[in-house]
Write a structure and sequence with these properties.
59% of the residues lie in helices and 7% in strands. By secondary structure, it is mainly alpha-helical.
Length: 123
């Protein structure tokens, strides 16, 4: 992983870190599962405060680009946005629930379409 911080850049250092890691992850330069340096390690190598790198990591995790596994480290997350993964998880839970309720697929789909129309304000 190669990051460069430009002091004369109008973007703050944490944003430069966030953007560069995000771009490298999305381009595949940092593959899914790649273990990122610790906050302190990366801060030291870039000459930044640890809080600056921590802020970038929090933003990247919120964006779904990386995931923190506690003491096991921080890794590049699977492709797709956090919102898409959350929606897929909710859809899976819904599918399991309607199956347990005994609804057929057509009824389950009609119910979802009605809920989406209502949620998006579409007639």
């Amino acid at each position: 992983m190669t990051l460069k911080i430009h002091i004369d850049d109008s973007a703050p250092p944490f944003e430069q870190v966030r953007v560069q890691i995000s771009e490298q992850a999305r381009a595949g330069v940092l593959p899914v599962g790649y273990r990122l340096p610790t906050v302190r390690g990366l801060a030291e190598s870039l000459g930044l405060a640890a809080n600056t790198v921590a802020k970038a990591y929090r933003a990247l995790e919120s964006d779904g680009v990386i995931e923190t596994r506690g003491r096991n480290g921080t890794y590049v997350a699977a492709a797709g946005s956090a919102a898409e993964r959350e929606a897929a998880s909710a859809a899976q839970a819904y599918a399991e629930r309607v199956r347990r309720l005994g609804l057929d697929e057509d009824t389950a789909l009609r119910t979802v379409r009605d809920a989406l129309r209502a949620g998006y304000g579409v007639g």
